[in-house]
Structures are given as structure tokens and as C-alpha cells.
Known about the structure:
There is one protein chain. By secondary structure, this protein is mainly beta. It is 2% helix and 44% strand. It contains two helices and 35 strands. The chain has helices spanning 36-39, 258-261, and strands spanning 2-7, 10-15, 19-23, 48-53, 56-61, 65-69, 86-89, 92-95, 111-115, 118-122, 127-130, 133-136, 148-152, 155-159, 164-166, 173-175, 188-192, 195-199, 204-206, 213-215, 229-233, 236-240, 245-248, 252-255, 270-275, 278-283, 292-293, 298-300, 314-322, 330-336, 345-352, 359-363, 368-373, 381-392, 403-414. A six-stranded mixed β-sheet has the order 27-28-29-35-34-31, with no helix packed on it. The longest helix is centred in the first third of the chain and has 4 residues, at 36-39. Mean pLDDT is 85; it is low at 1-30 and 69-77.
Amino acid sequence: MTLFLNSGLKIFVFEVTFVWLVPKVLSLCLPSDINECETIPDACKGEMKCFNHYGGYLCLPRSASVIPAPEPPITPTETNPCPLGYEPQGDTCVDINECEREEHDCQPSQECINTVGAFTCQCPDGYRKVGTECIDIDECRYRYCQHRCVNVPGSFSCQCEPGFQLAGNNRSCIDVNECDMGAPCSQRCYNTYGTFLCRCDQGYELGPDGFACNDIDECSYSSYLCQYQCVNEPGKFSCVCPEGYQLQGTRLCQDINECETGEHQCTDTQTCVNIHGRYQCVDSNRCQEPYVQVSENRCVCPVNKPVCRDLPFSIVHRYMSITSERSVPSDIFQIQATSVSPGAYNTFRIRSGDENGDFYIRQINNISAMLVLARAVSGPREYTLDLEMVSVNPLLSYQGNYQTSSALRLSIYVGPYTF
């Protein structure tokens, strides 16, 4: 080949001859070679020339020539006249299975794979070959797992976050219904995505651990839940009333009228008087000398008896009941004249029974007055007040200073409770 090199003003011409030695290869037991120079169109580009050789081809300058290399001396032996990796079998050469004969240099962790005329060393699944060694493949780099990936030698495993479990493909994670798997909720369990929630029935509250339900003591929250007494129960509360009362609705206490229900022990000669929380048996005839009974609750002092001159003409018996610690002043009983003489002037007063000044009279008009509780009182306690109406009639002055009076004997029972 002639090369022209331009170097300044001078031109140098060199004659170069390329020689390529192509060894002859025994054709014994080898497949026939393909001539790529003939089968591949334009195998070599430009000014290059295609030279076929066994198992391939070369692109060389057109001035190059190929000189076959001297054939290596083949010294057939009686044991193996065939190429490397083969052995004679009759008139032919057959492949040697180096793996079965353990004529290989694979590592103990590698698998020997026989090939035509040779063998290869293959790494187990999960490893890749670097040089002659097998290196573990970190599959977690490829994001095979939905949640967490754990690489192990030659493999990997997928793990799920708490509240999930592996799906059938061992890679995806699906929600676990902890409520169906014995979640530690003491009352109600609600499954949510990846977890669960414990809830309590009415009357309970969730404990600090988030699982146990503790009873709510409603009675400790307010003293107004019940009129008398609140009793805490598991998950609820109830109101109770004292003896002599019954529950009205869910929280109020109502007095039991034993006189109407017949739950009393009064005799035939007694009258049952209902009071707050209990009853009282009083004699049907409460008239005392010099008074005589003229009706069920009315006693009269006969005018023909001298002692009656300084006593009220009549006494009417009445009964009432009030609660303890009633707010004061409080109107509790109204006195009303049943008959009034024309021209009479009436005044009202507490004749007896109020030694401590717990009551007073407020006159409303000429024929009525109001008994007022002046001080808060606590029971159980009983008062017997004689409330007197004094009548003065100037029209009857021809008979002297005419004055008459009548009394109302009021028995007041103070109950032990404020309701």
C-alpha cells in the first residue's frame, strides 16, 4: 500500500505491505464455516477489503494480503485425537461433559453447565457473576415490595407495616381486620385502614391504654342529676328516693300519700293526715274541755259556760306540711273568715305556739290574712299554732263592748328533706 503524507513542502511515499496470518483449523468434528464476505452485502466499507476466516471475517486495506499460518503439527494420540473439549468416539469426535466428570473449575457455590466443546459456571438464583465469584443481587433496589423489602443472601422478602399482611403475591400488602382477629377492645372495635379503633358504650369512657372502657361516674359530675340521691351503676346511673317517696320520672321524688293508698295503721277512731314523707294519725275528736265537737274538725265552747268568756268561741283543726330549709319569707297558709257580721272589724294574730318567732301574720284585708314563715326551719319538726281572728262590732255597742273571736288550730309538720 502506498501512503502519502503531506509534511510541509516535501512529499514522502512509503510502500507498506500488510500480512495477516490465518491459521488453518482442523475441520475434524467442527461445523462448516460461513463466508460472511459472500453472504453479507458490503461487509466492509470504504476502501477496505473483506477477508473471510474461520468463524468470522476481517476488513483490511486492499493492498493487504493474507498468508495462511503454518498449520500446527497435530500429533494424534491414542487417547484423544480430537480438539479440546472433544473425545473420539469411533470415527467421530463427541463433546466431553466436563460437569459430569468434574473436570471444571467452578466454585462450590456455582453450577457447572456443559456446553458444546466447553462448559460455563453459573451462579445460583439471586446472584450475579463478577469475575469468577458470585455476588448477591440486592433485589430491594428494584422496588419489588409495596412496603418494606429485606434483602437476604440470594433472595429477598417483603414485609408489611403494622396493620397489614402480605397478599398472595408475597409483594403487595393488604389491610388486616384486627377486629376479626381478636383486637383487645373491651367493648366496640372499628377497623380502619392499617389499624383499628376502640370505642365504648354509653356510660363508659376509653381508658388511657385505648382499649379498656371504664365506667363513668355520672353522679360525681353534678349534684343536680337527682332530686334526692344519685346512685352510680355500670354504664349508667339511677335516682333513688327516701322512704315515703316514690320516683316520678327518672329524677324527681314525689311524696306517697299513705292515707289515700291505705298504707297506714290509723285506727277507726283516728284520722290519717298525710305529711311529707310519712303520715300522722290524729284523734278524730280533738276537742278538749270546755269545747265540744260539733263537726269533724270544729269544736265550740258553749256560751253558757262561764269559762268560755275568755276563750275563742270556736276552734277549727287544720293540718299542713312544709319542707326543710324553705326560702323565707314565705307565704304558707291563708286564713279566711267564713262569715262576717255587718260593721264588724276583724284583726288576726298568732294566739299561741310561736314562742321562737318563726312565723308572723300579714293581714290582707278585713276578712283574710296570710301566715308567713319568717325563718328557715329544719325537720323533722312539728308546730301547733292557734291563729285567732278577733271581731269587734261597734253596731252592737248597746250590749257593751261587743267582741268575739274564733281560732284555727294549725298543725304544721316540717319534713326532713328540702323537697
